[in-house]
Amino acid sequence: MIVAGLHDDPPGPGTVLWADIDHEHDMMSTRMLGFWLYMLSDSLIFAALFAAYAVLSYPTSFMGGPTPRDVASPLYGYAETVVLFTSVFAYGMVMVKLRHDLPRAAIGWLLVSFLIGAFFIGMETHELRDVALAGGPPQRSGFLSIFWCVVVAHGVHLLFGLLWMLVMVAQIARDGFTQLVTYRLANLKVYWLYQGLIWTFVYTFVYLRGSI
Amino acid sequence: MRRALRLAAPALPLLCGGCAPAGFWLLHPRGPVAEASLQSWIVDTASTLLVIGPATLLVMWAIWRYRRAGGKGSYTPGWSHSLPLEITFWGAPLAVVIGLGFYSVKGAFDTDPAGPGVMSRTASADGQKPPVNIDVITTDWQWLFIYPDRHIAVANELVLPVHTPVRFRLTSSTVATDFFIPQLAGQIDVMPGMRTWQGLIANQVGTYDGFASDYNGPGFSWMRFQTRIVSPAEFQAWEASVGKAGRHLDYAEFDRFATPTINKYDTTVEFSAVQDNLFDHVMQDVMMGKTYVTPADMTEKKSHKLNNGQQPTGRPLDTVKDERQ
Amino acid sequence: MTEVQQHWDPIFGRLTLSQVPYDNLIVCFAFFFAATLGLVILGALTYYRKWGYFWREWLTTIDHKRIGIMYAVVGTVMLFRGFVDAIMMRTQQVMAAGPASPGYLGAEHGYLPPYHYDQIYGSHGTIMLIFAATPLLAGFMNFLVPLQIGARDMAFPYINALAFWLTAVGAALTMLSLFVGDFSHAGWVGLAPLTELPYSPDVGVDYWSWAIQIGSVGTTLGAVNIITTIIKMRAPGMTWMRLPLFTWTSLTTNVIGLTAFPVLGVAIGLLSLDRYFDTHFYTTGMGGNFMLYTDLFWIWGHPEVYFIILPSWGIMSEIIPTFSQKKLFGYPVMVAATLSIGCISWTVWLHHFFTMGAGPIVNGFYSVATMLVAIPTGVKVFDWALTMVRGRVTFPTPMLWAVSAIFMQIIGGWTGMMLAIPAINYMTHNGVFVIAHFHCVVMVTVFAVIGGTTFWFPKVFGFTLHETSGKWVFWLLVGGTFIVFTAMFILGLTGMPRRLAYVPYASWWPILAIEELGVFVDIAALGAFIYQMWVSIRDRELNKAGRDPWGTSRSLEWMTHSPVPAYNFAVIPHVNARDEWAWRRDYRLHHVMPNEFKDIELPVNTPVPMFIGICSAAFGFAMIWRIWWLAIVSLVAMIAIVCLRSFGGSTGTTIPADEVRRLERLAARPSMRSRPETAIPEGVVVLGGGDAR
Ligand code: HEA
Ligand code: HEA
Ligand code: CUA
Ligand SMILES: [Cu+2]
Prior knowledge:
The complex is a heterotrimer of chains A (212), B (325) and C (693).
Chain A: H1 27-56, H2 68-71, H3 74-99, H4 103-133, H5 142-175, H6 179-211
Chain B: H1 2-8, H2 11-15, H3 32-65, H4 83-110, H5 117-120, E1 132-138, E2 143-147, E3 152-155, E4 157-161, E5 165-172, E6 177-181, E7 185-190, E8 196-201, E9 206-212, E10 224-230, H6 232-243, E11 248-249, H7 251-257, E12 269-274, H8 278-287, H9 317-324
Parallel strand pairs in B: 1-5, 4-10, 11-12
Antiparallel strand pairs in B: 1-2, 2-3, 3-12, 5-8, 6-7, 6-9, 9-10
Helix pairs in contact in B: 3-4
Chain C: H1 25-47, H2 51-59, H3 64-95, H4 114-148, H5 157-179, H6 204-232, H7 245-277, H8 290-324, H9 331-344, H10 360-372, H11 374-388, H12 397-419, H13 422-428, H14 432-461, H15 467-492, H16 509-538, H17 580-586, E1 592-594, E2 600-603, H18 608-625, H19 628-646, E3 652-655, H20 657-667, H21 670-673, E4 689-692
Antiparallel strand pairs in C: 1-4, 2-3
Helix pairs in contact in C: 3-4, 3-5, 3-16, 4-5, 4-6, 4-8, 4-14, 5-6, 5-18, 6-7, 6-18, 7-8, 7-9, 8-12, 8-14, 9-11, 12-14, 12-15, 14-15, 15-16, 18-19
The complex binds heme-A (2 copies), dinuclear copper ion and copper (II) ion.
One heme-A (HEA) binds at residues 76, 79, 83, 86, 89-90, 121-122, 124-125, 128-129, 133, 187-189, 435, 439, 442-443, 445-446, 449-450, 453, 473, 477, 481, 484, 498-500, 519, 522, 525-526, 529 of chain C.
């Protein structure tokens, strides 16, 4: 009845009972995996928000107030996209400098990435202020609620990324490229790239789709 | 499938001869929609039992036969796989689920609240009669039934002719709840700013209990109504008498009616001269943001002192009447 | 910020003295009970000078075993609280049946006005599912998963501690709502739009939402941790097809947790935006759409119920082979069934609102999807049965619990299959039939948890639980459960809706009275349980457990000492078989102990997770009461702590090899030492040792 492959062999030559080393687990890859898993759960937050956006962007949710076309300008959004991806690119340079073991240059690029990211936040704030002043605060309608929510949720993620960059600047300056710093930089890369990716979704769903 | 019900029918009175008065409503449907549900239930119970039964027996048999103290089974510690058995155990439930799947979709059409299939297919000519239309509005925590064709309305009581299709449109002026008359029709959500439908035919004259079945605030337990199924002649007489009711129902009156009220004493109110399209008006207003705010002392409260040790119930219905005079 | 109906001031927010329901007899009683218990514990800690120990070994610990125990303690406390809620609900309904039923304590009928009753089922459901079942199972997973895969610790011990503290804060906020303010009246599901500010102007909904939000951040972090641990930390030789089934179910359940809880976060987060910022996500008008909430909630809510059932099945799948003295039948099939249930659980959420009028095609689709779950679940039932077939089955308490859980699963699943048919669901939705259905299945979790507790208790604490009184607990709780829920199924045939503070029909009273009787039996079970604990702890010296007190256990955790030393395994085992421990026993290798030890690195304790927990408690409290300054301060503090800690770098301590050897000698029971030498079969390489003791 026992099927081959499901059966465990009896002990014999070559059977080992105890691991010879204390099984060093690769700290880098473990932490990276953990962070990817976190990113997965973060994606589900955005997935749920986009689903909510889809539900709340029908005319019944406009309540006679601004529509997607009124609040999202594809051109301005395009400019924002370019800015954000410049920041992502600058962060890419940080990783290059990391590979070449140039801490000072890495700090420099980190600051560049930070400043461009901060500029993006500035652009977004400016845009949202205009929307609010033009009669589109989040309290105006169901559609505006979700519009603000999606944009601000992304913005808050960016803010945390910026804070993280500052922390990394300090840590590189203090410790150089230690293992801890390296894996954090790598995770921050994933995070920052991912925020860029989310932005492309925002841009497609909110800015482009809204303008047609 | 109706045959299955016929076969089961003689068994039911035996099982629960006296249980209709005891309130076992789901076993005593009085209309084709509720009947279809009960029939589904019987079929589902029987066909799932085809697998569930043997499974239960298998567990019991294993326990009994292979218990260490006194069991007769032999011990074969290596036995942990058997292809034929695995195929059976995936296959048999799959077969039942496929069968039930088709049956379930059919039942979903039969009892679809937006237009119960069984209503148009009833054996008698009942299904072909012109339907009675009723607009249902729920408030915190009362029922308003409007008979738009007659411009009459009644709160917390429903009167319907027997053997006649009835079509409901439902909406809520506050939060969501469910409309349920266990012996006549299943539940359908009643939702603010939205419209749902339900339909039923009553087969037997009598009084049936209906109530809100989805929690919607502290008045929930008291949010009930009696459904009086009467003969067509009686129904006409009733309509005429309500048509003479002293209280009229326009939007302003509805506004007053809809303030949060716990219907503690099963008060019913009759209205005549009901404003045209009141239903749409209410729905539209809710969509535009109208809310009937629940006062803070009428929600979650553990403290007794706040209301002089009294359970706050909102305005009793009688005061509404007083204001009108 | 939204205006609130009652008092608000900038310093205390909505908090006023009148928010403390000191005039409510029941609350006062609960308060004195809690206060006395608290004082006794604090007093004992002080008297026995255990504060230092408590701080060093528990509050600041990041050892997965201690964290597991703390999870279980929180879960058990909350299970008691949930049980008290259950008693109160049942008692209210039996007292409030019929228009003639008298009222006490300011209630119209019974002793609870609807304003109070409605909070009780809300807190009962929330507590039982999220703050009792989930932490209890998290406790099992924390304790067992690293042991079962042969690891020294979790992948992220620090995050593990943080996850625990956040869960504990969620539970604490729920408890606090008893004494300060009120809890939500809108059920554990947070019925929208009832939860919107105009209809729930009090702080109840905020308590509910922040307790869940904070707790579920903890659950998500825990999920990241356990998944990573299972993927990355397995001992050499522990291939996927050798993972113990409990570990498989933990993996599946945490994948569900990782992906489902963020959706809950969004569902409740948007609700909070409505309540705090006047937005219109779920409002009845102004373009809001509360059906969006219902969807988002159940997209989480349904996977959540499988989140609590899967590890319970895992526990059963460990207990049943052990006491059948036989391999688990159809292991690969069990794994496949587990994974497929995990997947299908994502596709069925609409069966919780068939009555929303989605139309027969949509309803039919979700009906079929729902019923598909019956197939892999059925396979599990059959495979458990076949595990016993051709086995040698004994029935100590853990096995009794596991087997009766199978029956509960069958009844609960069978009635679930009825609810899954829209035509039937239209009649039974929102009725006590549903309540009876899901209590059968959640009691599978309770049974599995109690069974698992008796099973692994010796592993955790080093002594077995008292068997006779354990059987008393079993028969009483099974009896009580049977009485309550059989009666409730019968009552379900009436069409009685759930959540009734007042039962308008006196004709239902006899059945309600039977349910009450069952609850009394449940209370007796609880008494027996307390007695069992007391006797067991009193006689702990007599019931010392060796490595494997059952003698027939199968997985790795039974290879190490009881209680498990801080380093889990003196030398990490090399895995050769699916049930490694049983395999070694079968081939007489189980007395072979390593005798060559190396230094062991362990992470060092830190109070930081607890500090973050405290900040999150302050944040939750501040948000509930709308004390904005405190919310900002605690949020900033939290972020600052996280940032600052990242500058610390990770530190660890080393247990030198000599110390490991000393501890191992100490831990080996005399009985084990005096075993006759067992010859090691020819050719077996025993690296780093080979000393048969
Ligand atoms: C641990 C928790 C748990 C589990 C495991 C389940 C399992 C199932 N549940 Fe349950 N359910 C809940 C917890 C759970 N449920 C809760 C908490 C609610 C209410 C929430 C609320 O509103 O507050 C609920 C509500 C609920 C509803 C909505 C009711 C309503 O509100 O109207 C439905 C409807 O389809 C349903 C169906 C099912 C089905 C089909 C299964 C299946 O997975 C069962 C499968 C198992 C079997 C069928 C038995 C074993 C199989 C065999 C022996 C062989 C094969 C058998 C056949 C082919 C028939 N459940
Ligand atoms: C895990 C989940 C869980 C569990 C275990 C229970 C257990 C019980 N529940 Fe629960 N209940 C829910 C989840 C649960 N419930 C949910 C989700 C709702 C819906 C809420 C809503 O409407 O929103 C609900 C609603 C609900 C209602 C409906 C209220 C209403 O609609 O009006 C009722 C009424 O009787 C009830 C009663 C009971 C009873 C009598 C038990 C008994 O089975 C309790 C038995 C006793 C124990 C389980 C404790 C015994 C403990 C020990 C012996 C210690 C052992 C401990 C260790 C070894 C660690 N519950
Ligand atoms: Cu559900 Cu409208
Ligand atoms: Cu479900």
